[in-house]
Amino acid sequence: xxxxxxxxxxxxxxxxxxxxxxxxxxxxxxxxxxxxxxxxxxxxxxxxxxxxxxxxxxxxxxxxxxxxxxxxxxxxxxxxxxxxxxxxxxxxxxxxxxxxxxxxxxxxxxxxxxxxxxxxxxxxxxxxxxxxxxxxxxxxxxxxxxxxxxxxxxxxxxxxxxxxxxxxxxxxxxxxxxxxxxxxxxxxxxxxxxxxxxxxxxxxxxxxxxxxxxxxxxxxxxxxxxxxxxxxxxxxxxxxxxxxxxxxxxxxxxxxxxxxxxxxxxxxxxxxxxxxxxxxxxxxxxxxxxxxxxxxxxxxxxxxxxxxxxxxxxxxxxxxxxxxxxxxxxxxxxxxxxxxxxxxxxxx
Length: 348
What we know:
Layout: H1 9-21, H2 25-38, H3 43-50, H4 54-67, H5 86-98, H6 114-125, H7 132-141, H8 158-177, E1 181-192, E2 218-226, E3 232-237, H9 242-255, E4 260-265, H10 269-272, H11 274-283, E5 286-290, H12 301-313, H13 321-334
Parallel strand pairs: 1-4, 4-5
Antiparallel strand pairs: 1-2, 2-3
Helix pairs in contact: 1-2, 2-3, 2-4, 4-6, 9-11, 12-13
């Protein structure tokens, strides 16, 4: 548990008296949360007792130390205040622009969220907006933009990824400037009859229904993105293995019969197996660069998959897996994808 400076005897007495006197359950829970933190009770126990999140517990205590008893009292009577004054709005904007949430008592938080902003405004000014849009507008006023956090693999090593980018920069630059060399980024995905969903907007009182399958079938797709032209080369396959991977490379060689190929892909067994290695060696004009482990964000082919799913498979009932896979492959091969290797200035 996080170790905090103890409250003074006067502060403990003040909170204890308020806990005895108050008839407001929200007020009571705030006071108890601060007192329990001060007594070094287990945070998990406090969150269970009060229904407050861990970050909210530490924020309450921080605000109480800073503002006094008003930080835990319920100041809103009847209808809540609806608007911040110009001065208060400027103060909030300055706070979110210049301070991390942890500095305002939100323990372990590096990035602002809508709920954090709402709690900050309520505790500091007693204002609660009915719509989240009001908080979005405050972030917009502060020149913030919305980002959904990307997934990061637990075993991802950013230092290794950064070193890889530095080591590969010169080689990729040379290939970029060589008209006789094609740069291809490869990856595989599976398309299944299990329906995937994506949020959509509809008129009020309308609700989307998407039929789903009771059985699960899948097909694999091999994708090669030419990062110089944005051309995608996608191929349908029953699954992914060493023999099928070799056949996909043979198809790529038929598309680029005379060019040197710089191939970037990750390192599963069906990429490193004997059949594939022997084919690459025999070809003589295919150079392989392996992406760093657990670093899909380095591969622009990942963006191609997302575009394909958004356009073809999300929110669709897939009755015939082969028909759907063929449609997916046709879309990819007919669309230009201007995605390049990230963090390489030569592709900017």
